[in-house]
Write a structure and sequence with these properties.
It is built from 4 helices and no strands. By secondary structure, the protein is mostly helical. The protein has a single domain, classed as Arc Repressor Mutant, subunit A (Orthogonal Bundle). InterPro entries: Sig_transdc_resp-reg_C-effctor, Tscrpt_reg_LuxR_C, WH-like_DNA-bd_sf.
Length: 80
């Protein structure tokens, strides 16, 4: 088994992650869409889009996949 955390760089900057972001990230790990995440956390999909963009900027990620990888490498969760 490969420990992916060892293969990923530590995020350049740490995003200011609140409880809502901590609820969003695991759903991203599972592959939920922004609309589905919004339904789960009872926020609009547009709010979820904005929060994901803010997280991407905070972690220096160019994509959702990179955000997931960097947030896991930064110790905010795991995909499993």
């Amino acid at each position: 088994m490969i420990d992916f955390e060892l293969l990923l760089p530590i995020p350049r900057t740490r995003a200011d992650v609140d409880d809502v972001d901590r609820a969003i990230l695991p759903l991203l790990y599972e592959g939920f869409s922004e609309k589905e995440i919004g339904q789960q956390v009872e926020l609009s999909h547009r709010t979820i889009e904005h929060r994901i963009e803010r997280l991407k900027q905070g972690f220096g990620a160019g994509s959702i996949a990179q955000l997931v990888a960097l947030s896991i490498a930064g110790g905010l969760g795991s995909a499993g």
